[in-house]
Amino acid sequence: MLINPAKAALIEIDVQNDFCPSYTLPSGEKIPPGALAVERGDEVIEPLNLLARTFADSGARVVATADWHPPRHVSFAGAHPGKKAGETVELPGTGPQVLWPDHGVQGTWGANFHERLDLRPVSLIIRKGFRHYLDSYSAFFENDRRTPTGLEGYLKTLGIDTVLLGGLATDYCVLYSALDAAALGFTTLVLSDAVRGVGLPAGSVEAALDRMKSAGITLVPSTGIVLGV
C-alpha cells in the first residue's frame, strides 16, 4: 500500500515492559514478564522498529504512547476492595471498567518502554491515564470520551490525514485508538503483524478485529507499506 510520508504518522501503542513477556538480555540475564504481559507481545517490536526507521528517514512522523498511571489508579483491582483483576466495575462518568493488575505505574520499570523499542525515530510521546480517577485506552481520548490527549491536534496541525497503528493490545488500546482515529476522519490502518491481544474475555481479539473492519479500518502487514508520493 502506497503511503504519502508527508501526510502520514505511525503510532506505536504502549510497547512497555508491563505489557511484554519475559526475555533474555545478550548478557544472559533473564528479565521477568510484565505485570500485564501480553502473550508474544514483544513480537510487535521488530516490525515497528523497521517501519519507524523508514518513516523517520522519509520525514514522516512517529508517535509512541504509554500508560502512565499513578499508584492506586482507578483501573487497578487493588484500588477496589474485594475485587480481582478481570472483574468489571461501573464507574461514574465512564461506565464499565475492567480491573487490571497494577501496571504502567509512573516512574517504575514496568512503565518504561521495552528496551528493544527504538525510540530514536519518535518525535512525540503521549502519556495517558495519568489522572487517578480516569483510565485511557485510546491514544486520542481518555475513557470519559471527552478529555483529549492532544494527539488529534498535533496530527491535524501537521496536515496528517493517515495513521498507521501497531502495538499493545489489539483488543483494548489498539482497538480504541483505531476506532477514534477513524471517527476523527483519519484514514486508519492497523499493522496486522505488529499487534498482539490480551484475549480477555475470550474472543475479544477476534471481536476487536471485526469492529475495526466494520469501521472501515484497513488491516495490513507492515511489509505491505510503501512510502512514496
Detailed description of the structure:
There is one protein chain. With 229 residues, the chain is α/β, with parallel strands linked by helices. It has one domain (7-201, 215-227): Isochorismatase-like (Rossmann fold, 3-Layer(aba) Sandwich). Helix content is 20%, strand content 24%. It is built from 4 helices and 12 strands; from the N terminus they run E-E-E-E-H-E-E-E-E-H-E-H-E-H-E-E. It has helices spanning 45-57, 151-157, 170-183, 204-214, and strands at residues 2-3, 8-13, 23-24, 30-31, 61-67, 88-91, 95-98, 124-128, 162-168, 187-196, 218-220, 226-227. Strands 8-5-2-9-10-11 form a 6-stranded parallel beta sheet, with helices on both faces. Strand 10, helix 4 (204-214) and strand 11 form a beta-alpha-beta unit. Helix 3 (170-183) packs parallel to helix 4 (204-214). The longest helix is centred in the C-terminal third of the chain and has 14 residues, at 170-183. The mean pLDDT is 96.
